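Reopening: structure tokens for the 2-acetamido-2-deoxy-beta-D-glucopyranose complex, inputs below.
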Amino acid sequence: MYRFIGIVVLTVNLIPYGFTDTPINLNAGLEPYDLLFDNAVEAYYKGDWISVILNMERALRNKGTVRRVRAHCRLSCANQTDFGEPVPGVGVPIPGSGSVEDLSFFQKILKRADCVNSCEGEKLGHPSLHKISEAVELEFRKRTPYNYLQVAYFKINKLDKAVAAAHTFYQANPDHLEMRQNLDYYRMMAGVKETDFKDLEARPHMEEFLEGKRLYSADDFAPSVDHFEGAVTEYFSADLECRALCEGAYDYDGYNYLEYSADLFQAMTDHYIQVLNCKQNCVVDLATLPGSDKTVEDFLPSHFNYLQFSYYNAENYEKAIECSKTYLLFHPEDEVMVQNLAFYSATLGEDKAAGITAREVVQQYIKQSLLEKELLYFAYEVFGITFVDPDKWTPTDVMPLKLREKQKVERETAARITEEIGNLMKEIETLVEEKNKDSGELSKVVREGGSVLYDDITVTMTSKSLNGSQRVVLDNVITEDECRELHRLSNTAAMMGDGYRGKPSPHSPSEMFQGVTVLKALKLGQEGKVPLKSARLFFELSEKVRKVLESYFRLETPLYFSYTHLVCRSAIDEKQEGREDLSHPVHADNCLLVSELNECIKEPPAYTHRDYSAILYLNDDFEGGNFLFSELDAKTVTAVVRPQCGRVVGFGAGKENPHGVKAVTKGQRCAVALWFTLDPRHTEKERIQAEDLLKMFSSPLDAEFQRSPSEPKPKPVQSDQPATETAEQPIPEPGKQAAKPKQKSAEKADGKQKVKQSDKAKAKAAEKKDKPAAKKNADAKKDKPPVKKAAADKSGGGGGGGSVAKATDTKQRPKAKSSEPHKDSQERRTEASSAADSEKDKDEL
Ligand SMILES: *[C@@H]1O[C@H](CO)[C@@H](O)[C@H](O)[C@H]1NC(C)=O
Ligand SMILES: *[C@@H]1O[C@H](CO)[C@@H](O)[C@H](O)[C@H]1NC(C)=O
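Re-run output (same inputs, fresh job):
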């Protein structure tokens, strides 16, 4: 606290104004509120409650005074030294370097500065006294002083004040559990009245507005008019103050002011544009709901929306017309308002109505705001000083065309990034899901051994005989004829499809490789290049394998195709000598095998969504080419399976089943490789297309193949939502020691603790800002006044789209009643909130 005294002594010696009579006297200026705050906190830890109250109350009072004085000084100085009249005796001003006009301009600037400085100095003391650190400002924004105050008041038994302080603090800290407990406790105490729960920081314009809205919703129109009118008056006075307070010091915003070197006009521009930006943002500041980051959408215009309808209901048509016209200044295209105005005018008489104009104060406001925006956009375009228009009503052409185009591009980029992030999130989701699935692996082990569905099919080897888990070898899954037909299909397709027979194997230079997918085969069939019958057989047999595996592994949810490939590997005779490699190296199907580490990493680029794999063998007239399972080291072979026609080896696609294919040293080895997923989102797109293609072909298909894989049973989704906190909060019993209002949790008054707390608070604040937009929109919807249609759309039922057409309809109808502005607030509110609810449900699913 000595810091401040030091500054005072120093500055007083340098710049003596405000201190001329008693140079070292704090009373000459207002006591700085950060000093008072510190004193109060110090007193708190000493348990000196009276001192807490005295200092904290004064801190709050002085903060208010600083604010008021600054606004007042700037406003009244502006009044005294405005730039309005021309310089006397000079005639038409011709500005130029050092011209009289320039001089008189700067003369006014100097006078204004002098005016503001002496005005503030007189009332507050030297400006540096009230330079408050960001940390303390944050405490005041968070309304922390009221937390100290409520404890202190409680201790000296000033219950009504304690309640008001607690309530005030809680408004800005709705997540503060202790304070909520305290409030619950206070509520049950004898002698506490409902009226004690006051928000001491409430801003008059918002209070009036919310009260007006409350009455409006209750159809209490006459009193709601009073509150909305009060709100408008208070709004403009708050706006004036907010704007005046924007005329503060230049905010270097992080960069080193020592390196800032701008010439006179650039420096003035930089500062002035910053001020203008701040002034424009008063719209946001004023629309902010108490104790939250949420704002009322289109705040100022909405006042006149509420007002016009309230006046109408109070049968004051003059005022209803005035307010409609005022609203239309902001939104001239608003159909409903245009209709309302037409209705009011017709009711009152067109002549009379024509004489009523929109409110002057709003006309002035819009004119000024638009001019500001123009300057800001100019600075944006020319100097790159960003400006984001906070208003919804600004006509498009206020923003320069170039900027509009630039913003369009930026928006598109932003949309693309958002989409990419969305995809990334989906992938992460999938990974998490799969991880969860992994942990459920144990139950899968127990589950295998279900029916194989077909009498012919035999279980030749189980996990046990294959020395692992999630493994099976089935025989006679397809017949000799079917094997031959698919084998032929592969070779014909390879020849017809590619024009040459096979390609070098991607896995081994000693082999050729050819492959065809179901869709490719069907397309070739459609073109007559392969027998359509064979292509269909390929489709049907792969489906058979899928069903058998689903059943054998007793899966609770359907298995979906992820990829299907009919592949043949052929030995290149002249490349077999001294061959040591495998036909297909050891790998796992849904993770990246790192054999050196005995690890398998389930991350992209691995196909992490794969859950089961199967290979359907078509022949055995080749040498080598045995299928093998190994340990994670990719060396220790745990089981070997010899291919043969009609044999299927099926296995879990995870790290439990590293596998490979031994070198094919002679002949051609053909098989259908099938990968499956339990996640319908990863269903093979080709498969769906293939199905569609099959449906187009004339011959009827087995009905079960018509089942679309894109119609899965919706998976049950677990909700990770924690139970509401309220349920877990024990309600304190009155009089119990434990239930007394909690003191600040940081009982120890050491500085570190304090810093930590405010860090936490910062994180909280940031968190809040990141709230999903959907919620915000839903709230905004609710905040909108119920539509005040001149034409009731009785014809259409609900509200919503197409109001133009309906309006014309009703106009033609003679029924007078139907062209009344109506207010189906109840209906609409339910509609709006149920829409919002279902949106929320979607989010949670
Ligand atoms: C500005 O000056 C006029 C006339 O001198 C006065 O009526 C008005 O109250 C002044 N406004 C402020 C904010 O001082
Ligand atoms: C399983 O391991 C045993 C013992 O090592 C081995 O004899 C047997 O051949 C293995 N099973 C298969 C299918 O390879």
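The two ends are 55 Å apart (CA to CA). The first strand starts at residue 458 and ends at 461. Marking as resolved unless the reporter disagrees.
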